[in-house]
Specification:
Layout: H1 3-13, H2 18-25, H3 29-36, H4 44-54, H5 58-62
Helix pairs in contact: 2-3
């Protein structure tokens, strides 16, 4: 799955708008749209917030793994 589709699919699966996610990340809808389309690099802290919100791993969000479950906490 392409990265931009992964971000969009996770958001759309929860019936959320880009504006709603942008508010959660304290950025504008336009900025989040650039993150989602991968025209602007998303900050690490925003990736962590999204991973926690979607209950997945940063690796999954970045396309490093196709396993969507978060890593177990130690």
């Amino acid at each position: 799955m392409e990265l931009k589709l992964r971000f969009r699919d996770l958001r759309e699966d929860r019936d959320l708008s880009q504006t709603q996610i942008a508010k959660m990340l304290n950025c504008s809808q336009q900025t989040y749209s650039r993150y989602e389309s991968h025209t602007t690099e998303i900050p690490l802290e925003s990736l962590i917030v999204l991973a926690q919100f979607y209950k997945t791993s940063v690796d999954y969000l970045l396309g490093i793994t196709n396993v969507s479950e978060p890593y177990p906490k130690k």
